[in-house]
Automatic annotation (TrEMBL):
GO CC terms in record: phosphatidylinositol 3-kinase complex, class IB
Taxonomy, superkingdom: Eukaryota
Name of encoding gene: PIK3R6
Coiled coil: none
GO terms classed as biological process: G protein-coupled receptor signaling pathway; positive regulation of angiogenesis; positive regulation of T cell differentiation; regulation of natural killer cell mediated cytotoxicity
Protein name as catalogued: Phosphoinositide-3-kinase regulatory subunit 6
GO molecular function: 1-phosphatidylinositol-3-kinase regulator activity; 1-phosphatidylinositol-4,5-bisphosphate 3-kinase activity
Residues covered by region (Disordered): 264-283, 344-364
Originating species: Rhinolophus ferrumequinum (Greater horseshoe bat)
Amino acid sequence: MESSDVELDLQRSVHAVLRELSAQAPALQKHQGMWRWSLHKKVERDPGKSPALVRILLRELEKAEREDVRHVIIPLLHTLMYVLTKATGITEELYRRTYAFCMKSLTLPAPYCTVALDCAIRLKTEKAVPGTLYQRLIIAEQNLRSELYPYQERVFLFVDPELISPSVCSALLLEIEAAQVQQTPEACMRHVVSHALQAALGEACHTGALQRKLQASPRRALERYFHAVVTAVEQMASEPSPSREGHLRTLEEIYRSLLGPAVASRGRCSGDPVPDRPPSTPLPSPHITFRLWTDEEQLWKELVFFLKPQSQLHLSADLDALDLQGFLPDRELARVSMLSTDSGIERDLPPGAQELPAPSSPEMEHTVLQRKGGIKKRVWLPDILMPSSWDGPPGLHRRTGRPSGDGELLPGVSRLHTARVLVLGDDRMLGRLARAYHILRKREMQMFCLTPRLSLQLYYIPVLTPEKPTSSRHLELGELAAFLGRADPWYESTINTLCPAIHKLAEMPPSLDTSQTVDPFILDVITYYVRMGTQPIYFQIYTVKIFFSDLSQDPAEDIFLTELKVKIQDSKFPKDCSSPRKRGVAEGPGAELSLCYQKALLSHRTREVTVSLRATGLVLKALPANDTEVARPTHCPPTVASLTDHMCLRVSLTEVVKSSNLAGRSFSMVTNTFRTASIRIQSQDQRLLTLLLDKDHRRTFRDVVRFEVAPCPEPCSGAQKSKALWLSSQQQKEMERTKAELKPLQMPINTFSGIVQ
């Protein structure tokens, strides 16, 4: 195919992706999201098309900037960076133009400037040392050992067997296992060496002979070449003003030692046919750990086991004392030390002493062994050790565009591990993830062993029941996925479209012909998501305290992420604990409820409202209802949209309105909606309530008489709890006031863009 035909074909594919973004297509539309995958597959099968695709994407980006078509900038940037990570032979002029565009985009509002900064950081390194991004990605994802780049990543794929059918679980597991059979450590090391030499030497590298030589090399020799290439690339990337000539000479020496001086200087072995296209160096999918989620403690255990092989390496003294398997008692969080009043450098001399006693004298012995009287002081772990979020590690591994400076929480300890937790399912699975995340944060406040060394990233792929997309149950269970699609159009186009594809894959019979190469579409999209989805959207977690009709039963506490539904039971209070029924209240449908809530105002002032009414049920939703209610970041000034952010509950209440006419009394239903930050609801007559959390029938509470809902605060550390015992009453009141103002706990879910305004 001629160059003009190649560019025309790629141009058509890029325009198809852009048309898909611009069209107001319904969610989960058939074949949506396939254009991006097929575009990357074209370059993967023929790496020689990469420079042409980079030029086309750059032209479209510059056109979008001129015409102020911002909604295509982030998808085009992600597509461009994904191509540049795998490509070789990109000219310096293309790198320069791409970097200039990213720097110019820093003047745009968030999230465009955030994504552009992330791309600019990576481009600066790749421009100086081509092949660095590919090498670091393979080392981290495949857990290859390297002292110069010690970062490790792992993808944990969790599915709930009660929510996902066995056929879907089997199909996903088979696709993951089939892809990872070919991704042995030896194969990945060969990919790193081959890609680095191709990126540095360009056309002077005989790719076919190089790959054959690497294939025939034993494990010991392959490791030697791998470490030599990694050392050359990382040392070059760490220099402030790298010298391309010196780097090229180093890689040429490695290339000659591999192929021999004669073959390397000749370029191509005699008798070798001239290939139509150079053999490609694949970019393997990351190491994925597939797990069926059956235990709430499973997430904690998986993260601990991920860190445990390296638990005794590169740790400071403070972390060596931590136990990964259990909890530290509160008393161990504070230690007693002696606060000396001397300098600690010179011996304390008696007042008026002018000269030291003789070394053998009793005075000298007394001076050496005894210090001045100190006071006992209780030392608390500093508050800085109780982080509020799990951001990515800094430096070489930082790929999110966030400012560095928080990656080293303790001296000598940095976040070398990244756990990418990916859950499949619907809103019920996200409710389980929120509970596991809350348990994890509570444990970290007591132990603090994962946070200093682990970056936790959360991802979500909706897999709904195979019903008609227009069915009410189908839409009800996919509310959070629909919100993510409205907030991030690239998530809608790339991830929300996986649902029908996953069910279609599960229905297909397994292929008996193992010699046939099949493109793993689902695995490719998952890989693209966990690599490029670096911008989180934070969701408020709400806590609910539940009181039951049985006074001997202790109140229960739980959390929810998306929804709390309240239904009126047919049963009533027992006679011994029934509440007094109001006189004059006519018997009718529903129950008499007392509501006390904090009304959400534009001014963010506190206004408490108390009301009594009869209702047949109510629903508390934590997600905005439509496109006009997409949340703004917390740093934005208060506007009308601020009422519908993640810190606001939307309460829909079905009220019973009584009316009297000639035919007698009648009742009508009216739906009232209001927004609140917290709410308390109590049944005033003999009706009991049933609570359903996050649409999950396994999280149902019956025989409820009262419940309270509020934003879930960040868990307090054990040190802070123990500290209250040593404070005065005034200090305890101040501490309680500070605790009431704690930052609420929010769970991040990664998308490609974050919230696009």
